[in-house]
Amino acid sequence: MELVSIIVLNWNGKHLLADCLESIQKQSYSQIETIVVDNGSTDDSLDFMRKNYPDVKIIVNDKNEGFCKAMNQGMKATTGTYKLPLNNDVTLSPDFVKDMVKAAEPAEVGLVTGKLIRVSKTKEEVIDSAGHVMFKNRMPRNRGDGLDVAGFDKPEFVFGACGAAPLYKQEMLDDIAINGEYYDEDFFSFLEDVDLDWRAQLRGWKCKYTPDAIAYHWRGGTAVRRSTIVEKHNYKNRYLMLLKNDSLGFFLLNLPQILFTDIVKSSALLFRAPTALTGWFSLIRLFPKTLRKRRYIQKNRKVKPSQIEKMFVRFDYSGWIKKHMTEDVHSIKNQ
C-alpha cells in the first residue's frame, strides 16, 4: 500500500479545520500522512490544531504566501507516492482516498479527480466539480458545475482535476515541474490547477475521473467568491497559462472565439470592477519569464497539438454574456 500525503492549506480557517481534519482521520485507507501549511493565520488556527490534532505536522508561514507557493512547500515536505492537496473547506467521504488511489493505478494516469459535491446553506446537493473541461475559447470550467449529483456517474478521462481535492502522482509532478515548482508560483492563486492539468497533458499524462470518490466542498470557504482579487488573478493567470501551454496554430484557429470572450469579460470588468484589470501590470512584468517557461514546455512536450485540441469543446454562449455584464460583475463591485 503506497503512502498518500495530504496537504491542507489554511488561512484563518479555524472554523473549517475540524470537519476537514476529522474526515482525513476517518479514511479507510491506512497509509496517510497529513501536513497543514498555515499561511500566516491571525485567528486561533495554530493553537486549535496543536491542541486537538497533535499528530498533524504544521508548516507555519509568517505571511500569506498564496496557494501555489504554500502548496508547493507542503508537497515538497512530504514523502508520499501520491500527493493530495486539500482545501480546508473540503471534507472527504470515508473511502475517498482509497477510491482515488485505485483510479490512479494505471501507469498512464498522472492525476485523478473525484466527484465534489457543493455544500450550501440551502442544503441542496449539486455537483461542484467532476473534473475540468477546457473550451475552445480557452475558458476552463468545472464539469457538472451546479448540476444534479446523480449525473456524471461513469469513470472517464477528462482534461484535469479540480485543485480543491486532486490526487497527483509524485512521478508526474516531478516530470512536469519547472524550476522545481509543481504549481506555478507566479500565479499566486487561481487557475494554477488548470495550468498543471495542461502541462501534464502535454507530457502525455492522463487525468481520470472517478465518481466513486466523493468529497464535499463549501466553495468560498477559503476565498471570497467572485471578489475583485479573484478576478484579478483569474484574468492574469489565464493569459499566463495560454502563453505557456497553447499551440500557436490552434490558438489562431480559435482566435475569433477567444477574442470575443475576452472582449465581453474585459468590458464587464472595465465598467463594473476596473481594478481587476490591473492584472495586466503583473502580466507585463512576468512576460519575459513566462516566455522562457513556454520554450521549456514546448521543447519537452510529448503530445501533438492536434491531440490536445481534440480535448477542447465548443462553448455555449447562451446566457453567458448577460451574466457577465450584469449579475457576476455586479457582485464583484459590491465586494
From TrEMBL:
Pfam families reported in the protein's UniProt record: Glycos_transf_2
Domain Glycosyltransferase 2-like: 5-128
Swiss-Prot/TrEMBL keywords: Glycosyltransferase, Transferase
Keyword Chloroplast on entry: no
InterPro entries tied to this protein: Glyco_trans_2-like, Nucleotide-diphossugar_trans
Gene3D superfamilies: Spore Coat Polysaccharide Biosynthesis Protein SpsA, Chain A (3.90.550.10)
GO molecular function, one term: glycosyltransferase activity
Family: Belongs to the glycosyltransferase 2 family.
This protein's name: Glycosyltransferase 2-like domain-containing protein
Organism: marine sediment metagenome
